[in-house]
Amino acid sequence: MSHQLPDVQASEPDVTVGLSQVGVTGVDKLVKLARDGKRPLILMAEFEVFVDLPSGRKGIDMSRNMQVIDETLEAAVSEPAYRVEDMCGDVAERLLEKHEYTSTAEVRMTADFVVREDTPASELPTQSTITIVASATATEEGTREEIGAEVIGMTVCPCSQGMSASRARDVMRDLDVDEETIEDFLEQVPQPGHSQRGHATLTVTTEGSPDVDLMDIVEVARDSMSARIYNLAKRPDEDYMTYHAHADAKFVEDCVRSMAEQVIDEFDHLADDAVVHMKQSNDESIHQHNAHAEREVTLEQLRAELNGDQ
């Protein structure tokens, strides 16, 4: 005998407080992104899906959220081409439609993506892994979408390097090396400084789909650090990376500012209300702590600062 199951989620909670984000995290999905004239990209993606919850409702419809995710991702597989940020936007808009009590729906996605490239000196083929970051927030006013990436590189501490250069200068003076030769040597041979593995994250958020190419974002993020790193490295490649990193020593703050400058050069076509999120975290080699710097800003504000208007 069948009977109507009670809708407990729709009942009033004991504590009538609204919640800004309720949903699911750690949802793994295999996403197939087709490309015109090329092999499709296969991503193992992890999703987070949230809606807001009014104070008079006990819970959300969790199974309905999962059904929407499955339906949308299955539809994405059959499309001839798809941008991951648009996929997130599609899911967010569907959630908004299916939850009459919701005013905001948010979808976040991360996925590892392999980039093929050559090593810098020996020019051997290798692969690097980046993390794609995408999200969308849908409201009655419209949908804002975010696309970006987290990449790994190398940084060298300018302060540590400066101390090494000072020591080298004192030693050469004791050896009666003339000042011009000392300065020429230090300019051509960067002195040691403690190095870090750096994690650079750059995302762009706009109304609708951001008019940016993911690989351009990756290039900006990788070039913001002291040097790029590669999975495969013969001795000439190790020498290349070490030299170039020490020739462009950067604090964690410098990396974020480098991203900011490149963003204006690379994405100057974006509207003033586009938002860029720039983040750098360094795994310190001589400290137990790590270094971190971050900035989220509109293109309008960033343009003003770089033009000296602030």
What key attributes describe this structure?
310 residues; alpha+beta; 8 helices; 34% helix; elongated
Can you walk through the features of this model?
With 310 residues, the chain is α+β, with helices and mostly antiparallel strands. Helix content is 34%, strand content 35%. It is built from eight helices and nine strands. It has helices at residues 62-78, 84-98, 158-174, 179-188, 214-223, 235-247, 252-266, 299-306; strands at residues 19-35, 38-53, 104-118, 125-139, 142-156, 195-207, 227-228, 275-283, 291-298. Strands 1, 2, 3, 4, 5, 6, 7, 8 and 9 form a nine-stranded antiparallel β-sheet that branches. A hairpin with a 6-residue loop joins strand 3 (104-118) and strand 4. Helix 1 packs antiparallel against helix 2 (84-98), helix 3 (158-174) packs antiparallel against helix 4 and helix 5 runs antiparallel to helix 7 (252-266). The longest helix has 17 residues, at 62-78. It is elongated and about 85 Å long. The protein starts with 18 loop residues before the first strand and ends with a helix.
Secondary-structure element pattern, one letter each: EEHHEEEHHEHEHHEEH
Shape field:
elongated
Largest beta sheet, briefly?
A: 9 strands, antiparallel
Helix/sheet category = alpha+beta
Number of strands: 9
CA-based gyration radius = 25 Å
Helix content bin: 25-40%
| Tally of helical segments | 8
- Strand content is 35-45%
Mean pLDDT reading: 89
Distance from first to last alpha carbon: 72 Å
Uncertain runs are none
